[in-house]
Amino acid sequence: MQDSKLKVIELFAGVGGFRLGLEKANPDLFEVVWGNQWEPSRKAQDAFDCYVKNFSTGIHSNEDITTVSNETFVDLEPSLVVGGFPCQDYSVARSLSGEQGLHGKKGVLFWEIKRIIENTQPKYVLLENVDRLLKSPSSQRGRDFAVMLATFRDLDYSVEWRVINAADYGFAQRRRRVFIFAYKNGIAFEKAQSTHSEDQIVFKEGFFAKPFPVEYEPYKDRITSVTLPTDIVSISESFSFGFHTAGYMKNGEVFTTQVIPEEEKSVTLREILIDESEVDEKFYLSDATSEKFAYLRGPKKIERTTADGHVYSFSEGGMSPTDDLDKPGRTMLTSEGSTNRSTHIVEVNGRKRFLTPLECERLNGFDDNWTNTMSDRMRYFCMGNALVVGLIERMGKRIEEIEKTNILTDVQLELSLQS
Predict the structure, then answer these.
(1) Parts of the chain with a pLDDT under 50
(2) Catalytic site residues?
(3) In this predicted model, what pLDDT tens digit does every residue of 22-41 receive, in sequence order?
(4) 10 Å Cβ neighbour count for 287?
(5) Are strands 157-165 and 246-250 parallel, antiparallel or unpaired?
(6) Rounded to whole angstroms, how far apart are CA atoms 81 and 296?
(7) pLDDT at 98
(8) CA distance 253 to 199
């Protein structure tokens, strides 16, 4: 029989979006036993302090993950590893001796995820990243993601991925991120999935297709397949491939397609705004700041000169002077709240203003004042780095469904052995 709880390790935790989503899905199932958040080169650890304020159980780690021993992870016995990790260069090479395996670029945190998986063999891994991961680097499209998939293959995992725009599924922000779900070969869920065809998994029966339904046909017939080279170094050196927004990999066989979401009515910016009587005067735009935004958000064509004297024209299309209150918000960046083209500007009762930090929390589905342990500037920064909590809540409920299937399968196995 299964344990009543799934032990979870949360990596690169930020202010705890993964954990909050899982706990909203089922606090009786998910037990985060270890959460790591460490911001290098910063004396103030604002995100970690916020995490500690909001979560009281489990071990809170504020240390460089590369210094954490393998034994620490082994002792934790996780069933699920989650994390939003940095998008970096995943190229690898053989060691000089050729006998010590592969050496990835130093400081790339995906290799820490690999180390943890190698030492703990969790049933599930759930990761989040920017969607450009599927196409990086620009000089060798798809190489980095292929290296990741091959790494999971070599660790004996099957993988699903999906680029999800949160607004497509009813949330308040047009935020596109790629989510990666890997599961150990041999578990009940993997055996159940193996009875379906690749397209059934991606379009209907898979991990993502259940909570985030799509039409049962690809966008513009975009479906491709490829077999990953067995040598991960050759992938790093020469492999290139166009991964689509959804896909499935098992034993190095890749099926990928561009899916069309079955869109749900999204929450609008208007619905997440606080009452104007509660908005501090500091969030309203002065005439001078309003003029700056009119320039930043307007169309422009500027002549520029490179260091070697080459003259070129930089052009930028215009955008609305204020954000449409009857649409979900645009993707929030870490520069939110600054005088920057990407910053949201709303106009209410004839006055233009920034979103407040609390409204930015709502854009991501966090509880009000989740980040009130830090300055406004850091609150904006942390929300620009965060994920949409409601997406993780849906994924958590999907994992709960899978766990029930696993338990049922184990019970059936026990009964068959007894008969």
Answers:
(1) 1-2, 98-101, 413
(2) 87
(3) 999 999 999 999 999 999 88
(4) 6
(5) antiparallel
(6) 41
(7) 47
(8) 13
Q: What is the pLDDT of residue 91?
A: 75
CA distance 109 to 410: 35
pLDDT at 119: 97
Whole-number pLDDT of residue 367? 98
Distance separating alpha carbons of residues 370 and 220, to the nearest angstrom: 42
Q: Give the pLDDT of residue 307.
A: 87
> CA dihedral defined by 328, 333, 335, 337, rounded to 10 degrees?
20
Region of 41 on the Ramachandran plot (φ > 0 left; ψ -120 to 50 alpha; else beta): left
Q: At what angle do helices 17-25 and 389-418 cross, to 10 degrees?
A: 50
Mean pLDDT of the chain: 92
Q: What is the pLDDT of residue 87?
A: 76
Asked if residues 38 and 65 have their Cβ atoms less than 8 Å apart, the reply is: yes
Can you list the domains of the chain with their CATH numbers? 6-264+390-418 (3.40.50.150), 269-354 (no CATH)
